[in-house]
Amino acid sequence: MAEILVCDDDKDIVEAIEIYLAQEGHHILKAYDGEQAIRVLQNNPVDLLIIDVMMPKLDGIRATLKIREKNALPIIILSAKSEDTDKILGLNVGADDYMTKPFNPLELMARVKSQLRRYTQLGAVAEKRENIYQTGGLMIDDDRKEVSVDGDVVKLTPIEYRILLFLVRNQGRVFSINQIYESIWEEEAIAADNTVAVHIRHIREKIEINPKEPRYLKVVWGLGYKVEKI
User: Which 3 state secondary structure label does DSSP give 138?
Assistant: First the structure.
């Protein structure tokens, strides 16, 4: 069980999030503006913060900046703004994740689980051992040849594993189908499109909550594929 602070000036949203978090066994603290969130953090042990951007008194961006001065807890920002610039701003000021309203409550729960595991169990392991690659809740332990998503082990075929490892090692970079094929199969790529696409689809089905809207393994139309750096 974790102590989770939910901060949003919309009380209905706070109550809805509380219902889902409580079902996961978490204890919820509530705040309705940035100033109140900071006071709650000063007076209570909190394991994770979910905070809205647009709020009175002190908005979520400025609140996150102040919180980051003294606290390293995971922060998930909620916002009605979907522009990339807003997402980048939220992440740059210290948030660990960003969700756009309206959001799927089950996806939010998955991201909460991911952040809690990342900053506790998986974070401790990663500090002690080498050859561990991670982005968001996706982690590859190359010593054990093991892939996990939000702490749950995912079974991949050897080729699927090598493709995913290649992309995660180079997260943020876009690779063409031919580059992926030649790196994995170590031979010239001839009519490789279907071969690579099928393996990518299978990987997505195993690591993504919603393969049609992937969080990790994304297509860059006309260029290739990349694993998102989160």
Answer: strand
